[in-house]
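Sample entry was shown:

___
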Amino acid sequence: MIATEITRLALPLVGYVAAAVFVVYLALFAVDYARNRKIFKEVSKVVEGPRGHFLFGNIGLFAKFKGEFIPVLNEVLGKKKVALIRFFYRTVVIVADMDAARTIWMTKNFPKGGMYTKIREMFGDGLVTAEGDRWKSHRRLL
């Protein structure tokens, strides 16, 4: 009898907690989506790539090539040295030329996405993970 009373009281609480977790997740997703959309708009002014769906990105290319990564890269890059692709709503710049890669790593400070936040938490602010003035100071040391 006590167990059924506890169950009766606990079930609505579990539902409220699950709803709260879901709302927090949606809020974090919205912030992450907005940040990645901003990065995509900035980078797409300079780098070309297939347009893709606003939420799913270029995932259709992976369906076209049955999940194979290299044919997707060939399709996106074509004759270009640098191209833009979107995995779901995440923006990824593909560099297929050593000189272009050197230019990016040595002279530009591109905004970094969410993956770098996790790497920064583990390894700290280094040349790869730093941004802005901190990146410039690390770059000058080399």
In short: Residues 6 and 13 are 11 Å apart (CA to CA). The radius of gyration is 21 Å.
